[in-house]
Design brief:
The chain is about 80% helix and about 0% strand. It is built from 5 helices and no strands. The protein starts with a helix and ends with a helix.
Length: about 150
């Protein structure tokens, strides 16, 4: 729940920022000189890119949460079996062991979105966020095509 609140606050702050930046772009365009119009258009591009990026991330999070709910309903969510250091951080050897098992499961059944979801969690636990995101995107795509 804390993550959802943090995400909502961050998204709201970004939207306010996009509105402020966009209004400055409009003011520059209204000035009417070739230079200010050029800068105004450039400034307006930034909020457009930001809104698109925010939308795609929100869509990704929503889809990942939907898959988590489906997997939970099936009783297939990965169990947290990782050993932790006294600081609370995940033990690297433990994460590598779970990752190796999840990778083998995914290689054995590469068309099962459930395996890709669990592999994404293992990547995340191993602190490999880019690969975790790609594995989750694969899980989302496979789940969409399976229904």
């Amino acid at each position: 729940m804390r993550a959802k609140i943090s995400y909502a606050i961050t998204a709201a702050v970004l939207v306010v920022y996009f509105v402020l930046v966009g209004s400055r772009g409009v003011l520059l365009i209204e000035a009417g000189t070739p230079l200010t119009v050029t800068f105004g258009v450039a400034v307006l591009i930034l909020p457009v890119i930001g809104v698109w990026f925010l939308w795609k991330n929100t869509e990704f999070v929503r889809d990942a949460n939907r898959l988590a709910a489906l997997l939970d309903a099936e009783g297939g969510l990965p169990v947290d079996e990782l050993k932790r250091l006294p600081s609370g951080r995940v033990d690297r050897d433990s994460a590598d062991e779970v990752f190796a098992r999840r990778k083998a499961e995914t290689e054995d059944a590469p068309d099962d979105w459930r395996n890709w979801f669990r592999l994404a969690v293992a990547y995340h636990d191993a602190r490999d966020t880019p690969r975790a995101r790609k594995a989750m995107q694969r899980a989302i795509a496979l789940q969409r095509t399976s229904h």
